[in-house]
Amino acid sequence: MSTLTHDTAPATRQEAGPRTPAHARRRSSAGTLLSRGAVNGILLVAAFYTLMPVSWLLFAATKNHRDLFATSGFAFGDFNLFANLERLFTFNDGIYLRWFGNSVLYSVVGSAASTFLCVATGYAFDKYDFKGKEKLFGLVLGGVLVPTTVIQLPMYLLATKAGVVNTYWALLLPALVNPFGVYLARVFSEGYVPNEVLEAARVDGAGELGMFARISLPMLAPGFMTIFLFSFTASWNNFFGALVMLNDDKLYPVNLGLFMWNSTTAQQPEFYSLVITGSLVAVAPLIVAFVCLQRFWRSGLTAGAVK
Q: Helices in the chain by DSSP H: which ranges?
């Protein structure tokens, strides 16, 4: 009996042993599926939260004034989109097109100039050594912590002294300062521009400006477009700065113009359709910018992750 007991015990242990990895794999697989389901659920909720207002805007822009209030928010009425667009673009001698052009000017020109300055500054912080470099960079990073709304009044006073209030320069000049863009540009420079390439170019007799223009700047193209996209989005959505700096409605960006129209809807309800259709048109450039530049910013966001 003792022999049988000693002989069967190892067999039992041998049979039970291989089951442990299988159970572990099943538990791991169940945990993976659960975590994947949780992540997908969160992403689904986030997508719904993001797309629902845009979907409502799309439905509302197709309705006439009567259907806008008589039908559900996510139901179609009489299709009136083209008539709404025509009225939007011709109202008050086409003032909306003027606002739209102003937003393009502020966002494209201002963001391009700001991005170039950020890339050049971040490149200098990365590739050159000078006295007080890290302290100065820390001061630049400190600017990231300051909310834009806090500095609008000091900027307005400075613009008043400079005589640029109620001009295009009142929004273009402040857009040149982008501390977060400088930080990103330094990260991009560390990840995309090898020091060995620059040393080889110096050995071949290249100047510093020539190296930056012909070697470094093309390497920094993904970073340049990423910073430009962030600057473009911030400039296009810049409402408070325009509200403080501008009084002439011909200089308004599109978001400030729509706000002024919306403020009159209580007395003139017919402005509702103008505001809704104008809001839908104003969203289009951001969507186009993200779609057209996604191959740059998607690669740019991984800059510095692997060196």
A: 2-16, 19-61, 65-70, 81-90, 95-104, 110-127, 133-144, 152-162, 169-172, 179-192, 195-203, 208-211, 217-219, 221-236, 240-245, 254-262, 271-292, 294-300
What is the number of alpha carbons within 13 Å of residue 281 lying toward its C-beta?
A: 25
Encode pLDDT of 62-107 as tens digits: 888 888 888 887 777 788 889 999 999 999 999 999 999 999 999 9
At residue 41's C-alpha, the angle toward residues 36 and 42, to 5°, is 100
pLDDT at 105: 95
Residues 6 or more apart whose Cβ sits within 8 Å of residue 63: 71, 76, 77, 78, 80, 273
Confidence of residue 147 (pLDDT cuts 50, 70, 90): confident
Rounded CA-CA distance 228/219 in Å is 15
Taking alpha carbons only, the member of 306, 304, 286 closest to residue 185 is 304
Dist CA 294 CA 287 (whole Å): 10
| Token pair recorded at residue 280 | 């839908």
| Whether 62 contacts 79, CB under 8 Å | yes
* Nearby residues of 212 by Cβ (< 8 Å), 6 or more positions away: 120, 123
3 state SS of 148? helix
Which residue carries 């295009």 as its tokens? Answer: 168
Q: Which amino acid is at 51?
A: L
Taking Cα atoms as reference points, which of 235, 230, 281, 252 lies closest to residue 106?
235
Residue 200 in contact with residue 154, Cβ under 8 Å? no
Those residues with Cβ within 8 angstroms of residue 26's Cβ, 6 or more apart along the chain or in another chain: none
